[in-house]
Design a protein that fits this description.
heterodimer; A: 247 residues; mainly alpha; MetI-like fold; 9 helices; flat; B: 244 residues; alpha/beta; six-stranded mixed sheet; four-stranded antiparallel sheet; globular; binds adenosine-5'-triphosphate; binds magnesium ion
Chain lengths: 247, 244
């Protein structure tokens, strides 16, 4: 075991490693995007006001119970087991499914279950006054959500979303149980063929860390940029006409 | 004089608690009406019932001759005719000053961007906030926020402006700038219904003052009559407490 032997293994297998890292990242990104969308969908369904007792609100209630059941199940079981159940479940039903696609579906459903709670919390934490102000200028619930609430919730849960992306990069490794060619899976085969377990996995470790570290920094920068400057420019108005922006 | 809002036998209960009891009153076009009364007397509730942020338990709200409590009435459309200014400003935190004033025009009234911005800038100039059009709410002081909130409401070109204690959440040195804007609005012939504890201001701008106590309208009339020569014992007590 030496630095040289680690380097040799990397040089001999770098294409396979990068391919594995690439797929780990892709699966994590896809899982985070679709998971966040699922989270928003559930969070929005759970916060639709149900003032009148109509058939529609009854259907909504039943639907929300189903969504809650999904959230509880996916939060309460390991993703490794979920992957096995989904993939082999589909196989036993004679449904041909690509392993990569199955991995993406499992990680998205898993992320969605976690994001749902963040989104719901984000929506209820927007002060009631902004909802009332939106109502008072004639916005309905849908418009209020689209133009006022969702943009603020998206911003407020950005740290949680970023955290989830980092978790997904790491947790994509458990999807190797359904033989998806991501970083853990490729590392395992390199280790198996070279009998150099420490070296092979040490390289994987470094690659995982580079990915999570880069993503974390990038997200922090992105958050800063979204918030804009701490101060603002006061527009000098000469005459009565408003000045064109950006001139 | 034409009646814009006519309230008939309005009643509001929160559970068993009867907050408004058979309230009857009218707001005429171009009139400035001020609601006064002690804390908990139901002033905010009345204002919030008028634009249906609270659903009245019983009674009628007639707007331009139509009862808006009818099931078939388009509540969202009705609300665009009323401009509401809240004690806590309630600006949209994700939008800058200009967008706060255009979002309703564009998304509800379906005005195009140019027209919406022109209208918004007109009212931002009126309240003295035009040069802050790119600022986010978090960059503004309370008085500035409230002036933007007033411009936002005016930008919808409402028939009636409702103010619920617009200066109560402000530091004393910022009260003046908001009252100044409201004086201008009053002098321009806007129809206004104001809840305030600023008695001097109320006397100056109001055409009529309505005194409420425990959910009922005790007396109403010209400011000089209600404030200087009240007829009812409860009004006298209230004024003695507030004007000392
Ligand atoms: N959502 C609510 N649920 C239950 N009770 C309420 C609600 N809103 C108001 N009330 C009660 O209704 C009564 C009247 O309240 P309201 O806010 O209208 O008074 P107000 O005259 O505006 O007082 P203030 O001068 O303090 O603003 C109070 O007793 C209050 O506790
Ligand atoms: Mg009040």
């Amino acid at each position: 075991m030496s630095f040289q032997s680690i380097w040799d293994i990397f040089i001999n297998n770098w294409e396979v490693y990068l391919r594995g890292a690439y797929f780990a990242l892709i699966i994590a990104v896809i899982g985070t995007i679709f998971g966040t969308l699922i989270g928003f969908f559930i969070g929005l369904m759970h916060t639709i006001p149900q003032r009148k007792k109509t058939v529609k609100t009854y259907i909504l209630k039943v639907f929300n119970v189903l969504l809650t059941t999904y959230v509880e199940i996916f939060r309460g079981t390991p993703m490794m087991v979920q992957a096995m159940v989904v993939f082999y479940g589909l196989v036993s039903l004679d449904i041909e499914i690509n392993r990569f696609l199955a991995a993406c579906i499992v990680i998205s459903l898993n992320t969605g279950a976690y994001m749902a709670e963040f989104v719901r919390g984000g929506i209820v934490s927007i002060d009631k006054g902004q909802f009332e102000a939106a109502q008072a200028i004639g916005m309905n619930h849908f418009k209020t959500m689209v133009h006022i609430v969702i943009p603020q919730v998206a911003r407020n849960i950005l740290p949680a979303t970023g955290n989830q992306l980092v978790m997904n990069i790491k947790d994509s490794s458990v999807l190797s149980v359904i033989s998806v060619v991501e970083l853990f899976f490729t590392t395992n085969s390199i280790a198996g063929s070279t009998y150099r377990y420490f070296e092979a996995f040490f390289i994987a470790c470094v690659l995982y860390f580079i990915m999570t570290f880069t993503v974390t920094r990038f997200l922090l920068l992105f958050e800063k940029k979204l918030d804009g400057p701490d101060s603002y420019k006061v527009e000098l108005i000469t005459g009565n006409k408003p000045k064109k922006e950006g001139v | 004089m034409s009646v814009v809002i006519d309230i008939k036998h309005l009643n509001k209960k929160f559970g068993d608690h009867e907050v408004l009891k058979d309230v009857n009153f009218q707001v005429n076009k171009g009139e400035v009406v001020t609601l006064i009364g002690s804390s908990g007397s139901g002033k905010s509730t009345l204002l919030r019932c008028i634009n249906l942020l609270e659903t009245p338990t019983a009674g009628e709200i007639i707007y331009n001759g139509e009862n808006i409590l009818d099931d078939k009435h388009d509540i969202e459309k009705y609300r665009t005719h009323l401009g509401m200014v809240f004690q806590q400003f309630n600006l949209f935190n994700n939008l800058n000053v200009l967008a706060n004033c255009t979002v309703g025009q564009q998304k509800v009234l379906k005005r195009d961007k140019v027209a919406a911005e022109e209208t918004a800038m007109k009212f931002l100039q009126l309240v003295g906030m035009a040069q802050y059009k790119n600022a986010k709410p978090r960059h503004l002081s309370g008085g500035q926020k409230q002036r933007v909130a007033i411009a936002r409401a005016l930008s919808m070109n409402p028939d009636v402006m409702l103010f619920d204690e617009p200066t109560s959440a402000l530091d004393p040195e910022m009260v003046g700038e908001v009252l100044k804007v409201m004086r201008t609005l009053a002098s321009e012939g806007n129809t206004m219904l104001i809840v305030t504890h600023e008695m001097e201001f109320a006397r100056e701008v109001s055409d009529r003052i309505v005194f409420m106590d425990k959910g009922v309208i005790v007396e109403e009339g010209h400011p000089d009559v209600v404030l200087l020569n009240p007829q009812h014992e409860r009004t006298k007590e209230f004024l003695k407490r507030t004007l000392k």
